[in-house]
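Example 3.2
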Amino acid sequence: MANLSQSLNWSQTFSAMRHRNFRLFFWGQLVSVIGVWMQTTAQQWLVYRITGSQTSLGLVTFINFLPVLLLSLFMGVVTDQFPRRKLLLLTQSWFMLLAGILALLTWFGMVQYWHILMLSFLLGIGNALDMPARQAFVVEMVDDDKRDVMNAVSINSALFNIARIVGPAIGGIVVAAFGEAPAFALNSLSYLAVIYALALMQISASAAVGSRAKPLDRMKDGFRYIFDQKAILGLVFLVAVFSMVGFGALTLVPVFAKDILNIGAAGFGNLLSWQGIGALIGALILIIFGNRFHKGKLLFRSRLLLGPGIIGLALSRTPWLSMALMAVIGYSFITQLVLTNTLIQMIVPDELRGRVLSTYTWALGGFYPLGSLAVGFLGDRIGAPNAALISGVGCILLIGVNLAVFPSIQKLR
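Structure, written as tokens:
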């Protein structure tokens, strides 16, 4: 019991929460991300309802993240050049506006598939800047105390997954009872919480990074650093390939809910919520015990779970089993992302932080839509279960690539 109570020393377990700026961000984000997951659930259901096409589901994801693939590397230069808090105020306001437009279009019965594609692309432009800026802002919120970086990243992931549990469940209920428009409207209003939190923060002037070097030269400096650091190159590469081959299979979840498990919109929300439960468990383990684990080995073990989890989902015809497998997938997903993010944050110098993290967000947000589009295309032609099987087998094969090409990652502590 003494060892357990020592491990659960709350001042150490939640050490990032002692920083005022991080506390503000936590509560603002909690409200906002619940709204985001409500919209994600409602939008996926709306797309499949009006198109009946798995390819259409994949195309929305692809269009949403296409700007991340095209722009996020340059946005890393912007993140290192301008105050990150102001950049986040800009992106969150942009997201609020787009959610409001989608709510109005849906409420008045005017929404068409091309509207969703256009708004998804505009959302992606904002995400191309928001993702690296938000990742790089973590260190500023904990006052450059790298001892609290992993704790902050893990708490932020726990927050994200609390929202992933609550948001889809609420979203599924709202859609089933009132339709999609109220879910979009609630998401638009939820951004006010994070905008208010960002406005209250006190950030030192030194946090605004600037340089007279040309943007292209600054981008080249970031690439040069990454290719000189094989561990970071491996971390970025593996996020890219696992995002494309494995995470893209999540595009098929509405199809499993509607056509295979026959559990409807509320059941679809529950599937996403169970994914969030698994991810939350992973994040909480990292919050409490993260600094005691060998990070490289834990990262490898979490990757071992992804392929079997997706294969099990492809074969399951039982709702409770599918939900349990979604929890396994969620655990693997978030553990990989938190550990990869933390290892990069701990290695990279602050003056290159935005540019290096932009390659991480590019790998995650850029290759995930390619996988989503491919899996959606396969699902329309060979069925969702067979497409998911291919994805799961691909993840297992990538474990061999991890061992053969980047064995040094397992040694990272």
